[in-house]
Amino acid sequence: MMKRLARYILVVLAALAGVGMACAQELKCDVEINSTQIQNTSKEVFTTLQQAIADYMNTTKWTDAQFSANEKIECRMYFTIKSYTDNLMSGDLQVQSSRPVYNSSYTTTVLNFKDTKIEFTYQENEPLIYSETTMESNLTAILNFYAFMIIGLDFDTFSLKGGDPYYEKAANVVRMAQSNGESGWKAFEDTKNRSAVLSAFTEGNTSGIRNIFYNYHRRGLDEMALSVDKGRAMVTQTLEMLAKVFEVAPMSVCLSMWKDAKLDEIVNIYSKAGQTEKDKVYDLLYPLYPTEQTRLIKIKEIEKDF
């Protein structure tokens, strides 16, 4: 963990000094294609698609940072293909990523998002070609977007606004896809499409979510190895910041993304907190997520010793 943090510091210093660093692959991405809804079609095309995506995600050099094998960002892409006609596939994509917590064996979920607007063409054994300057296909655009979002969020959890270069790259992907008129990219078309996800982290009053990611992970979870109470107090502060995001943008996709990544973890964090602290956190979160009462009420439960 400390080695990984040191790498982030070196990357920032190198960028400030204009010094390049050796390139290496950054992602350790597990890919799965679920095609059970597709009948009367050879499954070989889905097998080659799965391998092609895995190779693309794991062998593309996404940054100028140097990652050793044990420092790669662990992530997962789970495609559910619901329609397949004339090489056109459509369905859902669940994207997840995680990072280690300082001085522990625990890994915390950073991103857990379901994209319901996945649509692309793919022919069996078709090569996937990476380009930063051109849109090779809607499939590679989708993969590029989520690769940069995964990396940007990961960097944000280690240094304040550390993910800036990767959000810029994601924005470039969005611009090219919008110019091509592809599904899932249009601004204001959908509150949870890829354009909306990027905007939630980079524009307006909701961009403070990135400060929340930094404080929660670096100053909250990582601090718990030294002081559980101090780390948990910072987590509480981040939830107060989250409530402020809700005040200005209650429908922002970043709020549901935070819930899907963090809610169960937050319940566990406060399992040994004092009752006053438990009640405060419950009161902070319930207005944001009233449909999650069953999970949220667990925050208030008294820890029992057996």
Notes on the protein architecture:
With 306 residues, the protein is an alpha+beta fold. It has ten helices and four strands. Strands 1-2-3-4 form a four-stranded mixed sheet. Helix 4 (164-180) packs antiparallel against helix 5, helix 6 packs antiparallel against helix 7 (228-248) and helix 8 (253-269) runs parallel beside helix 10. The longest helix has 21 residues, at 228-248. Mean pLDDT is 91; it is low at 9-23.
Weakly predicted, low-confidence segments: 9-23
Strand share of the residues?
A: 15-25%
* Main β sheet profile: 4 strands, mixed
Give the strand order of the largest sheet, numbering strands 1, 2, ... along the chain: 1-2-3-4
Which sequence of SSEs, written as H and E, runs from N to C?
Answer: HEHEEEHHHHHHHH
Kindly state the number of beta strands: 4
Which range best describes the helical content: under 10%, 10-25%, 25-40%, 40-55%, 55-70% or over 70%?
40-55%
End-to-end span in angstroms? 34 Å
SS element count, helices: 10
Rg calculated over all Cα atoms: 20 Å
Topology diagram in text:
Elements: H1 2-17, E1 27-34, H2 44-59, E2 73-85, E3 88-100, E4 107-121, H3 138-156, H4 164-180, H5 194-202, H6 209-221, H7 228-248, H8 253-269, H9 275-285, H10 293-300
Parallel strand pairs: 1-2
Antiparallel strand pairs: 2-3, 3-4
